[in-house]
Structures are given as structure tokens and as C-alpha cells.
């Protein structure tokens, strides 16, 4: 297949591109390499992807520097290259940053998604898989989070933009028969991870002997999910083209399926870990104790996340298998090697 991967220089995007190339697919990746965090890390991820094409019996890779919120640029790309499937992972990420720069979320997560949907619609794409987020559960307190729960009470603009993505995708699935699958990611971590995420920041600060800010006094629980497990789920979902649910009824509508070829899935580890325990694991792997600055919960944040992954497991065979101790150890090893510390 020829697959478009957006946000290809990002954390999850780079891994998905490598996985697809390894199994022989031809990947075109786009990214604007913005400065939300260090662009050099993004460029190094691109080099890491290119390295995967230097072996025998693998697919190809073409990188196009592009902002997918640019309607004309996206339209031109879809006109130039015929894509079989699309994995839309590019987005303006981060709950806390959405409090500071809301317009960035409208540009990337609303306008950008619209451009991708239009490209898929007009050029016969077989399947669009896109990144949603566990943040859509918002004020929900029923655990574990299920795709069959209502998600109408987001607590941040980031969460609202991801909920909007699911609604926009459903409209295109209904009107144009475009198969779409949304994946609600739960706290992804691992080597090559994002510097704005807790594991990256905590590891860096502990190694420097700096105090770490621990929100909600460390009582958060997060469904930390290792990157290899995430990528396995993404690709399995890509291969499993969304179809209508024959049991769906407008009289008692299921939020997780539709009479259109549209699905949403949770993709997480399904084993939440308290933040203080997570920090203990980091301390063990780093070999140093952390000085903790205990703080109240930040606006827009939620106390707990916990993914019910039964649907993804039954439909595509998704079974996450990496314990947090092993995943954090691999990250710390990568971090020390990459930054030579």
C-alpha cells in the first residue's frame, strides 16, 4: 500500500512510519516541524525513519514538509499522490498548552482535520485512521472509560477539538461512505517521546538534580501505554477497515459505533498507575531520588484515566503487553544515550 502518515516527525507518527516501512509499505510522511518542542528531536526522528529504508525488502519513504492546515497544500498533495490509506496523527497536542494558545488547536485540530477529510473524500482513500484522545472523556467519572460512554463534557479545548474530530469523521463516513476509525490514545510513553510529557520532563529534571512539579499531589492515575503496544494497535486498526454496525439503532444510539462505516476505539494499557508510583519507577531506573514539588490539580486536567479496550481486542486482537517498569527502563536508557548523560 501507499500510506500517508501525518505528523510523521512526531512521537507516534515516526514509529508508525517505521513499522509500515518494515513490512513493505510505501510511506509518505508530512510534518511542519514546528517549534512546539525542540525541532531537532523531530529531525532526528526523521533520520531514524530513513535508516529503516536502508535494508532489503522494505518499503520506501518520502518526506514532505507541510502544514496540513494549509488547504491548498493538502489538496495538491492528494492530487499528486494516490494514497490507499491515511493515518492522521498530526495535531496540536497538550491539554495545558491549550489554555495558553487556543487558536493553535483550531488551526491544527479543526481546520487541519477538515483538509485531510476532504483529501480522503475526493481521492478514494480506502480507510482513514486518526488520532483522538482519552481527554474526550472529560468530566466522566465512570471507570474504566468505555467507547460506549457519552463524551459530551470535555474539560479543555484540546479535548473539545478531539471530540470535534470524531464528529467530523462521522459526518464524512455518513455522507460519503468514507471508512474512518478514531483511536483514543491513553498517555503514550517510550523512547523518542515528547519533551512535554511527564516521563521526559521528570527524567531530565531528576538527572539534573532539579525539583519536579507533581500535580494533584501525585494522586493522579494514568493508563500509561508503551509506544510499541500503541503502534501495534494503530496498524491493526488501519488493516481493519471500518464497516457499519448492523445492530446500531437511532432509538438507542451507541456512541461507539454507527450505521455509517465509522468506529472509535480506546487504545491503552488498561492498567492505570498512580503518578507517585510512576515516579518511583523513574527514580529506580535513573538511580536517583526526586525532589517533589507537590501542587494542586491544574485547570483542564482530569484525576484518572483508565481504558477499557475490549472492543479493540475483539475486533483486531489488540493485547498490550509491556509493563510500566520495562517501558520506563527502555525510555531512560534511550534518554541517556540520546543526550549523552
Structure description:
With 341 residues, the protein is an alpha/beta fold. 40% of the residues lie in helices and 16% in strands. The chain contains ten helices and 13 strands. The strands form four sheets. It has a seven-stranded parallel β-sheet with strand order 3-2-1-4-5-6-11, with helices on both faces. It has a two-stranded parallel ribbon with strand order 7-10. Strand 5 (127-133), helix 5 (157-176) and strand 6 form a beta-alpha-beta unit. The termini are far apart. The mean pLDDT is 96.
Q: What would a concise description of this structure say?
A:
The chain is of the alpha/beta class and 341 residues long.
Structural features:
341 residues; alpha/beta; seven-stranded parallel sheet; 13 strands; 16% strand
Amino acid at each position: 500500500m501507499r500510506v500517508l502518515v501525518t505528523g510523521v516527525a512526531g512521537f507516534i507518527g515516526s514509529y508508525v512510519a517505521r513499522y509500515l516501512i518494515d513490512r513493505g509499505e510505501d510511506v509518505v510522511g508530512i510534518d511542519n516541524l514546528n517549534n512546539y518542542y525542540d525541532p531537532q528531536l523531530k529531525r532526528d526522528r526523521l533520520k531514524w525513519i530513513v535508516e529503516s529504508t536502508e535494508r532489503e525488502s522494505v518499503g520506501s519513504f518520502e518526506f514532505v514538509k507541510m502544514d496540513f492546515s494549509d488547504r491548498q497544500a493538502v489538496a495538491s498533495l492528494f492530487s499528486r499522490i494516490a494514497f490507499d490509506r491515511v493515518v492522521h496523527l498530526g495535531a496540536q497536542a497538550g491539554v495545558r498548552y491549550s489554555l495558553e494558545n487556543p487558536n493553535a488547536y483550531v488551526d491544527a485540530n479543526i481546520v487541519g482535520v477538515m483538509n485531510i477529510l476532504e483529501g480522503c473524500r475526493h481521492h478514494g482513500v480506502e480507510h482513514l485512521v486518526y488520532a483522538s484522545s482519552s481527554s474526550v472523556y472529560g468530566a466522566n467519572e465512570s471507570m474504566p472509560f468505555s467507547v460506549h460512554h457519552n463524551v459530551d463534557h470535555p474539560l479543555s479545548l484540546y479535548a473539545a477539538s478531539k471530540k470535534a474530530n470524531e464528529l467530523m469523521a462521522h459526518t464524512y463516513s455518513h455522507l460519503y461512505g468514507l471508512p474512518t476509525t478514531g483511536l483514543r490514545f491513553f498517555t503514550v510513553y517510550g523512547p523518542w517521546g515528547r519533551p512535554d510529557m511527564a516521563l521526559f520532563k521528570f527524567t531530565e529534571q531528576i538527572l539534573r538534580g532539579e525539583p519536579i512539579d507533581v500535580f494533584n499531589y501525585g494522586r493522579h492515575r494514568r493508563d500509561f501505554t508503551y509506544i510499541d503496544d500503541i503502534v501495534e494497535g494503530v496498524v491493526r486498526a488501519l488493516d481493519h477497515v471500518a464497516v457499519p454496525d448492523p445492530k446500531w439503532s437511532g432509538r438507542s444510539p451507541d456512541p461507539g459505533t454507527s450505521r455509517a462505516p465509522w468506529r472509535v476505539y480506546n487504545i491503552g494499557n488498561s492498567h492505570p498507575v498512580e503518578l507517585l508510583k510512576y515516579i518511583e519507577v523513574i527514580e529506580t531506573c535513573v538511580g536517583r531520588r526526586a525532589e517533589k514539588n507537590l501542587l494542586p490539580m491544574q485547570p483542564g486536567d482530569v484525576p484518572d484515566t483508565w481504558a477499557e479496550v475490549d472492543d479493540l481486542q475483539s475486533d483486531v486482537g489488540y493485547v498490550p503487553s509491556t509493563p510500566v517498569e520495562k517501558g520506563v527502563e527502555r525510555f531512560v536508557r534511550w534518554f541517556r544515550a540520546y543526550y549523552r548523560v
